[in-house]
Write a structure and sequence with these properties.
The protein has a single domain, classed as Double Stranded RNA Binding Domain, CATH 3.30.160. The chain has a 4-stranded mixed beta sheet with strand order 1-2-3-4, covered by helices on one side. It starts with a strand and ends with a helix. Helix 1 runs parallel beside helix 2. It is of the alpha+beta class. The longest helix has about 40 residues. It contains 2 helices and 4 strands; from the N terminus they run E-H-E-E-E-H.
Length: about 110
């Protein structure tokens, strides 16, 4: 999987960049059909300085997106990846249920002939 990393309006240190890319690549353990990934880091200039992480994963014509906000980039990365992981599990179950229903309809057509 190819992971694109972007930081808006600042230059992150290599530790955050490496952590985000490695954590995103670990999603391949959940679902093997991931084509591309993108991680975008940004922050709001305010008193609390909220850190925002957006993760996009491309899977067979579908784009899964998650955004997480917190006071720390690591927490935001982990939260966004947990959301994406849940979406990948749902997508995988959806594909499996479609396969099962397609097999069931093939059997019923075969029995009718």
């Amino acid at each position: 999987m190819n992971v694109q990393f972007t930081a808006r309006h600042f230059k992150p240190h290599d530790g955050i960049r490496t952590y985000a890319i490695d954590a995103t690549k670990r999603l391949e353990r959940v679902f093997e059909g991931i084509i591309d990934g993108a991680v975008t880091l940004s922050y709001e200039k305010a008193r609390n300085s909220t850190k925002i992480v957006e993760v996009q994963i491309k899977v067979h014509g579908t784009v899964l997106t998650a955004e997480e906000r917190s006071e720390d980039f690591i927490k935001s990365i982990d939260g966004a990846l947990q959301k994406i992981e849940r979406q990948l599990h749902r997508y995988k179950e959806k594909l499996q249920s479609r396969k099962m229903s397609a097999k069931g309809s093939e059997r019923s057509v075969g029995n009718e002939i």
